[in-house]
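WARN retry 2 of 3 for item q-0093 after timeout on previous attempt; input resubmitted unchanged.
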Amino acid sequence: MIPDMKPAEVRVIEDELRLFAARRPLAVMEILEWGAGGSTVYFSSFLEKLGVKCRWVAVEYSRKWAGAVRAAVGPAVHIELFDVGNDEQAQRYMEMDSFVSYPATLGRRFHFILVDGRKRRRCLLEALKLVREDGVVYLHDAHRRYYRCALAEYPSGEFITPRLWRGSLQRRIDVTEKPAKAKKDKGRKAVEKKAQALQRLTVEYVSAAAVRPNSYNPNRQSDHDFYLLILSMLEDGFTQPIIVQKQTKEIVDGEHRWTGAIVMDAIKQQKLEVRGADGEQVVAALRHRRAELIRPEMQLPVVMVDMTPEQMRIATLRHNRARGSEDMELTAQVLRDLRELGALEWAQDSLQLDDVELQRLLEDVQAPEALAGETFSEGWAPDAAHANSGEGKGSNMSLTPEALARMREQEKKIAEAKTEEEKAAAQRDIDIYRLALVFSGEEAKVVKMTLGDRPAERVLAMCRSVAVVPG
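OK item q-0093 returned
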C-alpha cells in the first residue's frame, strides 16, 4: 500500500522523518494522522527501516479503510475508528466531533501530524493544541482554498509543494511576501536604461533575518548541488557576500548562499552530522525549513546595491548565466594536478566522489570513444556516458541507486579482469534494462513535473504500483 500522494510530496515527508531521526536518534516519535491509508502503511514502514521507534495514532472514519490498514501495519500503529458509513455526500454534513476531538483525549503531544481526512479545517485547528513546540503539521491537498482560514492561525506555515502545506508553532521571518508593486505609469512606452554601476565594493555584516529572497529568481538548485554547497561552506566558510538591494532588502544574487548559511547555522545549533550516508537527506529537510530556522542574531556578509527594479532583474539573470558550465576535460586536468600535489583524497572527499567516479574523471574517456564498436548489445561495459546523469539541452539520464551500485560493481569487475576471458565473463554478467524516451513541448513539461529530479526512481515506483506479479 502506497500513499495517495505525488512523488515529490512523499519525498518531502521522508526528508522530514529523516531529519527527526538525525536530531533524536534514540527518541520515540509521536505521530498523529487524521485519515488512515497508504500513508500510514508506507511512512510507518519507512520509520522502521530508519530504525526510529514511533507511536502512531491514525484516526479513521471508514470501516473498510481501517480494516485494510490494520492488516498491513505493525504493533506501533493504532487505528481508532469512528464509523460514519459510506455515504460521502452525507459525511460532508456530519459534525464528526468524536473524530476530530479524539486525539486530545490521549493526553499526548505529537512531533508529526498529518491531516488527510474529513473535517480538515477543524483538524488543523485541533492540531495547533496537540503539536509540540518543535513539531510539525502537514496538510495534504492544501491547494483547496477553503482550508486557508485555518492555515492563517499558524505562527509559521508555507507551501512546500502546490498541494502540501507545512506548519509549526515556531515563529518565522516571512521570506515569501512580495514587495508592493509600484503603480504603473500608463504613459511610459519603454523603460529607459538607467543602470547604476557599483563604484566601490563595501562588505558589511547584517542579520540574516533582515534580507529576503526576491520573488522572481528563476535559478533552481538540486538537493545534491545544495548539499555540495553546504560541504563547501563547512570546509571553506562563507567566502562570497550576498548582493542585496538597499531599499527593499531583496537578494539580487546569492539566495542559495543565504539559505546555505541558515542551514549551516541550524547544523551547528543542533550539532548534526551531515557527512554520513544520510547527510544529503538531512540537509534537504533543513532546506525546506529555512523560513523558521532563521535566527535574527545570525550575521551574513552582504554588499548593498542601489538598483532599479528593472536592473535588479537583469542583474539576477546575468549573475545566473555568468557562472558558466564545467568543462570536463579541464576538470580532469585539475584533478590530475591535485593528484601530483598529493591532494587527491582531499578533493575526493570535498566533491563527494566515489572511487569509480573519480577514476572515470581521471581517465576522462570521451563518449564517442567509449561508445565506439561494431555492436551495441545487452552485454556492454558501463562507462561515463551511461553512469553519469548527463545533462544536455533538456536531456537527462537517470539511474536508480540500485542500478548505479550494480553498474559500479560491474565496472570494478571489468577493471580488475586480468584476461580477455574474465573481462568477457564480467560483461555477460550485466543485467541492465535501458529505456530511452523523448518528449517535447507541453508533454515534456508534464513529464518533467511528474518525474522531478529523480526520474528513474519515480518511474520504478509507478511501475511497482501497477505491476501484476506472475503466479
